[in-house]
Amino acid sequence: MEDISEVWQVLGESQEEVVRALVGHFYAGVPTDPQLGPMYPKDDMNGAQERLALFLIQRLGGPQAYSEIRGHPRLRMRHAEFAITPEARDAWITRMEAALDLTPALAAVRPELSAFFEEVAGMLQNRR
Q1: Predicted pLDDT of residue 82
Q2: d(CA 122, CA 11)
Q3: Are 95 and 30 in contact (CB under 8 A)?
Q4: In this structure, are residues 122 and 14 in contact, taking their beta carbons and an 8 Å threshold?
Q5: What is 31-83 written as a DSSP string?
């Protein structure tokens, strides 16, 4: 697979369900994570979960609902207010890897997704 946007085709008929399962697994532990919990809005955890799901659906080659609702992703700008340290980056990656473990339908594209998540998390790190 040359581009992460090809994942959507690999997932078959249940693409959106699989991505939403991944995001659900990820967010299940966010509120109690000492690094990540404080960064997420306790009163809008469902909104944060929906935004990540829509972003991933779009980025993996699915419908463009994220951009239709929120415009260009502008990930660095949207995350600039958060102190994303190496520890926070690593916590995000660890939680996402655990979510991948719990989403067996993604096994065929796991290496590509892991590399993508590493790249994005590294790009978003904004503190030392």
Answers
A1: 92
A2: 26
A3: yes
A4: no
A5: TT-TTTGGGS-GGGHHHHHHHHHHHHHHHTTS--HHHHHH-S--HHHHHTTS-
Q: Rounded to an integer, what is the distance from CA 12 to the centroid of its chain?
A: 20
Q: What CA–CA distance (Å, rounded) separates 89 from 95?
A: 10
Residue 125 predicted with pLDDT over 70: yes
CB contact set of 119 (below 8 Å; sequence gap of 6+): none
Q: What is the pLDDT of residues 60-108, one digit of tens each?
A: 999 999 999 999 999 999 999 999 999 999 999 999 999 999 999 999 9
Q: pLDDT confidence of 2, banded at 50, 70, 90?
A: low
Distance separating alpha carbons of residues 22 and 71, to the nearest angstrom = 23
Dihedral Cα 111, 96, 17, 82, nearest 10 deg: -130
Q: Residue 25 carries which side chain, given as an amino acid letter?
A: H
- Whether 15 and 103 have beta carbons less than 8 Å apart is answered as no
Nearest to 54 by CA among 37, 39, 69, 34: 69
Task: Kindly state the average pLDDT of the residues 49-69.
Answer: 96
